[in-house]
């Protein structure tokens, strides 16, 4: 008889304590990495370990002061993982977790909690490009380009050396290391020819410490380079061809004479 009352009392107590956990509690948040490259998947884990009792709760993932996702957590579980697929730059922000026995919390969460800041690193960033020298490009000239990033540049894992592309008319021409502390890279087109004319742009790849598959991109800041045809260059080029033909002809003659000599 005594035993039954104790059990009943315990049950009743559990019910009241359950209904009274309706207010929100903060949970811990864990992330594998706090900087993540654009288009990859972000995994965030909310942990109620050491915080909740053996009860089923709803875990809410919050960004800023709003919750953006929720999941049921069974009474024997203490970790709930949320996945945000193919993150964009707008996914950067402060994330946190709360839990409640209620599954219908208002979207604005006022409970004080410890957030973590997630930074999404862009894959391509247009850089400022200028023609370092010469300003008036003629055929045969070496054209030097200077790419500069103004403003803060966040890279994956605080990488110091990333890649940058020199592009013409939206195709990649050259790949170069971009020194993040120095914030600049130089490119050179050696011996420009007329078909090097076009719109040049420069991009940096803050999320890539190593080179990956090539990709075309629309650069923002462009500089127009017009290579002027030079008569002397043309003449030299044609002289070279003529000289080569004479040499070839001579070689053929010699070979033929030699062959005749062997035959007789
Ligand atoms: C549980 O919460 C209710 C109001 O929601 C309150 O009246 C009651 O006293 C609380 N019980 C305990 C044990 O805190
Ligand atoms: C995240 O929080 C930090 C400080 O807690 C603050 O400096 C930063 O601006 C916040 N980021 C966003 C995107 O709100
Ligand atoms: C790029 O060229 C400029 C001069 O045009 C020079 O001052 C600078 O040091 C060069 N930067 C690198 C990274 O080579
Ligand atoms: C690039 O575009 C310009 C004009 O838009 C054009 O004159 C030039 O021929 C193009 N160059 C290449 C290599 O496609």
UniProtKB/TrEMBL annotation:
<feature type="signal peptide">
    <location>
        <begin position="1"/>
        <end position="17"/>
    </location>
</feature>
<keyword id="KW-0732">Signal</keyword>
<dbReference type="InterPro" id="IPR003599">
    <property type="entry name" value="Ig_sub"/>
</dbReference>
<feature type="domain" description="Ig-like">
    <location>
        <begin position="126"/>
        <end position="204"/>
    </location>
</feature>
<protein>
    <recommendedName>
        <fullName>Ig-like domain-containing protein</fullName>
    </recommendedName>
</protein>
<dbReference type="InterPro" id="IPR013783">
    <property type="entry name" value="Ig-like_fold"/>
</dbReference>
<dbReference type="InterPro" id="IPR007110">
    <property type="entry name" value="Ig-like_dom"/>
</dbReference>
<feature type="transmembrane region" description="Helical">
    <location>
        <begin position="231"/>
        <end position="257"/>
    </location>
</feature>
<keyword id="KW-0812">Transmembrane</keyword>
<keyword id="KW-0472">Membrane</keyword>
<keyword id="KW-1015">Disulfide bond</keyword>
<dbReference type="InterPro" id="IPR050412">
    <property type="entry name" value="Ig-like_Receptors_ImmuneReg"/>
</dbReference>
<keyword id="KW-1133">Transmembrane helix</keyword>
<dbReference type="InterPro" id="IPR036179">
    <property type="entry name" value="Ig-like_dom_sf"/>
</dbReference>
<dbReference type="Pfam" id="PF13927">
    <property type="entry name" value="Ig_3"/>
</dbReference>
